[in-house]
From TrEMBL:
Presence of the UniProt keyword DNA-binding in the record: yes
Any Pfam family hit: HTH_18
GO cellular component: cytosol
SMART domains: HTH_ARAC
Species classification: Bacteria, Pseudomonadati, Pseudomonadota, Gammaproteobacteria, Cellvibrionales
Keywords: DNA-binding, Transcription, Transcription regulation
Protein name according to UniProt: AraC family transcriptional regulator
InterPro entries: AraC-type_N, Homeodomain-like_sf, HTH_AraC, Tscrpt_reg_AraC-type_HTH
Domain HTH araC/xylS-type as annotated: residue spans: 228-330
PROSITE patterns per the UniProt record, alphabetical: HTH_ARAC_FAMILY_2
GO molecular function, one term: DNA-binding transcription factor activity
Keyword Transcription regulation in record: yes
Gene3D superfamilies: Homeodomain-like
Amino acid sequence: MAESTLSSWALLVWDELSARGLDADRIFREAGLDPSSLRNTVARYSIQQMQTLWQWAHANTGDDFGVCAGKRWSPMTFHALGLAWLASASLGEALYRMTRYGKFVNDGVCYELSSEGLQYRFSIRAVDTLGERSPPSVDASIVALLKMIRMLLGENYSPIEVQCPHPPNAASLLLEQQVRCPITFGGDAVEVLFHRPDIEKVLLTGNTELSLANEQIVVQHLSDLAQSDLTTQVELEITKQMPSGQLKEDNIARALNLSRRSMQRHLADEGTSFAQLLETKRRRLAETYLRNGALAISEIAYLLGYSEQANFTRAFKRWFGESPTQFRQMPDNAEKR
């Protein structure tokens, strides 16, 4: 299936073209994009057609177009993923959601969050070659990402450094004014470097119920989008069946009309396994629930599909090196309650 992006991302381009007095309808059609898709919040455009659109903008409007388009980002640009982002309990949790579900917005790029001692690095890298993307599309991605981050950490926040893969151009000063931190030009990815405390700080605006509800909307859309992506379908079934107490590999396979052995084989082809997906989901939800503080530990164990609280406690100690009670009593986690 051709790589694609949400049409709502293209809406930023439409609005900026219109603001400059240009015929957005004609420009979209010449790029092969149906403007009527902009009214469908989960419609998609091909990456190739979007790059044609960005290249036209670059050639006909000036280097500042991407920065100006990126400033138009709002949470609804990313549909339910934007709302899940706003309700995240920390910037780290929000960025993790992008690494897991960013392909809902754009399946032509991959997202990665990595820990580097006292710092974290978030990368956006094209599946093919980021250097082939037009500079305005890269600039829009950087500006939109910084706007997303500041919605969580405050308008005055600035990261340590931003890496921009294209060479400096006439819009570089404007881009620097937006990110308000040093920019390194070159490389093969958009990267943002953060101080660890900024990533891990518990946010008072976090709402576990809302973030998880919107996350499941994203998962459902991903499942509909890529029926061949068994990993997404298994993740969705794990979430559905987790509180039932019958979270077994056979039950998941049966729900997907597969034999256990067939599911195992297909997941292996996608580089994962049922056990890995279940472990990752439980670990992340456990951390989210404990940081939120609204649920008792016994309730969390039930929601994660553990028949006994002791089994959950043993798993949590394996993940984090301490018990759920000790984790919840840490000052950074306790201040939310």
